[in-house]
Write a structure and sequence with these properties.
mainly alpha, 17 helices, 5-stranded antiparallel beta sheet, 335 residues
Length: 335
């Protein structure tokens, strides 16, 4: 009923000329729902909520041009920050060695082998391009070129995702980003960096803090990766749960397809499990992995044959990761 109410609210927002109250009710319900499931904190959910909030916080009255500009500039700041930090997050060896080849394998598999081995420096132009788009959107002089580059980037990403057949939920996000770009930037030749970055009341200040400043702390493991535009960056933690053949039978059968059993060690791939059940990647934070592993421990009676391995963020230059291991007793002691 809760989820159905959210859908009805979204449809109502489309058709009402003054949907402020509907937007605020939607944000309240969506926010409360996400508190019970942090896996809902996907980058698009986070971004959509604040774009809607920019329209909901302000009355959006036609004669009040200044209020309208404040709302739109907050939305512009969200997009600028998203492109900038998305590029920064990808400036690491793991993006070059693993994330990009994995994302592009559906297309690369149809090309001659010689053309699939791109030099690392050439792959690094991808994050640099995203950073340039974010900066270019700020200045009216470079705005149209940045919009065109961004749309081309999204279309290429969409082709790669469709070819791979994975993460279907991201497909409409790429389309939505193209529409946001056209709506917020294409015909705007007067708004400059000062207007977009100026903090003149509480909500733009909050947007600047959350989207512009806090992602800095994700680089120091002090802020969540998915709240810092790190999707498909390779700059997130990873985890698997090692299980023995003896305990697999105690785990619900619906989870078995996500347990690697071809060769030992057998392990439950938490990310693949999330894709299989929810069609979204797992929210890549150690506290989430520990909570999931604790549930597996409860299925197995806290068996010593269950171990969680969390691989930390990669070294930006080498891609090496440091691993931390937990058994069920350790997980119980950290609850």
């Amino acid at each position: 009923m809760w989820f159905f109410s959210l859908l009805c609210l979204l449809l109502s927002i489309i058709f009402f000329a003054q949907p402020r109250r509907l937007i605020l009710v939607f944000l309240a319900l969506a926010g409360l729902l996400s508190l019970w499931d942090q896996n809902r904190w996907q980058p698009w959910f986070y971004q959509y909520c604040f774009l809607l909030a920019a329209l909901g916080v302000y009355a959006w009255k036609e004669p009040d041009a200044q209020t309208n500009k404040t709302a739109l500039n907050a939305c512009r700041l969200i997009l600028v920050s998203t492109y900038f930090w998305s590029g920064v997050q990808k400036l690491n060896a793991n993006f070059v060695k693993e994330t990009w080849p994995d994302m592009a394998r559906g297309v690369l598999s149809h090309l001659p082998e010689a053309t699939t081995r791109l030099p690392p420096l050439l792959i690094l132009t991808i994050p640099l391009l995203e950073i340039s788009i974010g900066v270019g959107l700020l200045a009216a002089k470079f705005r149209r070129a940045s919009v065109l580059l961004a749309i081309a980037t999204h279309l290429i990403a969409l082709i790669l995702l469709v070819t791979s057949g994975e993460n279907i939920v991201v497909w409409p996000w790429n389309i939505a980003m193209c529409l946001f770009l056209v709506t917020l930037f294409w015909r705007d030749e007067t708004t400059g960096p000062r207007q977009i970055l100026t903090v003149n009341n509480a909500f733009p200040a909050l947007v600047l803090l959350l989207f512009g400043v806090m992602p800095t702390f994700s680089l120091l493991d002090r802020w969540d990766s998915y709240l810092s535009a790190a999707l498909y960056s390779g700059n997130t933690t990873q985890a698997v749960i090692y299980v023995s053949p003896a305990v697999i039978s105690r785990i619900p059968a619906s989870i078995h397809p996500h347990i690697w059993q071809s060769t030992q060690p057998f392990f439950l791939d938490i990310n693949r499990w999330s894709y299989g059940d929810l069609n979204v990647p797992v929210y890549p934070e150690p506290r989430i992995y520990r909570k999931v592993a604790d549930r597996i421990c409860s299925y197995t009676g806290d068996s010593p044959d269950v171990r969680l391995r969390i691989k930390g963020k990669p070294n930006p230059l080498t891609g090496a990761r440091r691993s931390t291991y937990y058994d069920c007793d350790h997980l119980n002691s950290t609850d």
